[in-house]
Amino acid sequence: MKATIPVYDICTVSDGHQHPDLLTERLGSYLKENYQRVHQQHGHSFYHLVLFTGGSGSHTLDFTRYAVEPWQLYFMTPGQVHSWHLGPETEGYVVHFSTAFFRSFLANPDYLDRFPFFSGQSPDQVMEVPEKLRDAIQSVFEQILQAGADNEPDLVRALLLQLFLETDRHIARDGEPGVPQQKQLVLRNFMALINRHYRSLRLPREYAEQLYITPNHLNALCQDLLGKTAGEIIRERVLLEAKRLLTNEQKTVAEIAGELNFPDNSYFSRFFRKYVGQSPEEFRKSLN
């Protein structure tokens, strides 16, 4: 049986850097140091940010491939899987920080969940920086690099929060003008609840109760903003986690079914085939 997909922690990739919960580096240097790691599919136990300022190639985030373009910004959360296939001229910035990095800095431990690009849903995590914002965003990354080199983690935290807020306000998809803030807030809270409870809660009404709205209201909101029903969004999250788990060939399909709270292996296999078009075993083989 093949070895499990590599899952790197912050210490693995931050070896030799000053802070155990942080890495800030120019992308070109990072790629040279980690060439073997980044070109194979792998996971992270930490948050991962990249701004491409030049270059070409592609990167795959949770089984969706994106073409690399200058001024593309993307975010990755712990537990996701990805790989890079980049040209030698690719440049930009990379920032890693652990789940503990903001813990003592923010009173609300779930503060990062408010941002759509930390939802764990890849369409929300890859975006283009508008031309009018490029100088300002690059300046923030340069300041983050300098603060990291000076071993000033609190300054890095403040600059990262500035980056998150500016990205949320001006770049993120659901921050576009014309969408009422209350609708955006309910959708964000719904997505955050799904990320916490998708293993145990599968019905829209269970989430609607926690959001203090009716199931019909929740469905209408999801259809309006995402073009999908609430049930489809919950199901997509379960399928995404199933795909992530299937990258680990040391886990049997039966173990994955149990981990995702399916009553048995055959029910999980039928569910997976219905919506993916392949059995779990066929999907696993297609990754090779």
Automatic annotation (TrEMBL):
- Work out whether the entry's keyword set contains Ion transport: no
Domain of life, per UniProt, equals: Bacteria
In what residue span(s) does the HTH araC/xylS-type domain sit?
A: 188-286
**Does this UniProt record's set of keywords contain Transport?**
no
Identify the keywords attached in UniProt to this record, alphabetized. Answer: DNA-binding, Transcription, Transcription regulation
Known Gene3D superfamilies for this protein? Homeodomain-like
What is the name attached to this protein's record? Helix-turn-helix domain-containing protein
